[in-house]
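Students often ask why we bother encoding 3D structure as a string. The short answer is that it lets us treat folding as translation between two languages. Here is a chain of 83 residues written in the first language.
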Amino acid sequence: MIPDDGLTPEQREQLAKSRYHTLVLVQFVGVLLMILGMWIWAGDILREGGWPLAGAPLVVIGAFESLLLPKLLAKRWRSPREP
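And here it is in the second language, the structure alphabet:
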């Protein structure tokens, strides 16, 4: 049984596609933040010898965004279970 949310099957499919693309984009941006953070941390991009105090927070934020945030969003968007 499909929940009565007032959406047509086409609208449900479009909603599912947009949510999927959102999850993929969130993961991708998180990975980019982690790479940028590691580059700042260990590379010479901002100053010679790296800058751990600037790079480490970006790595942590990127890890949260790519690993945990998609799971939280998917849980929030999940359909209610059938009885």
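Translate back mentally: The longest helix spans residues 9-42. Keep this in mind for the problem set.
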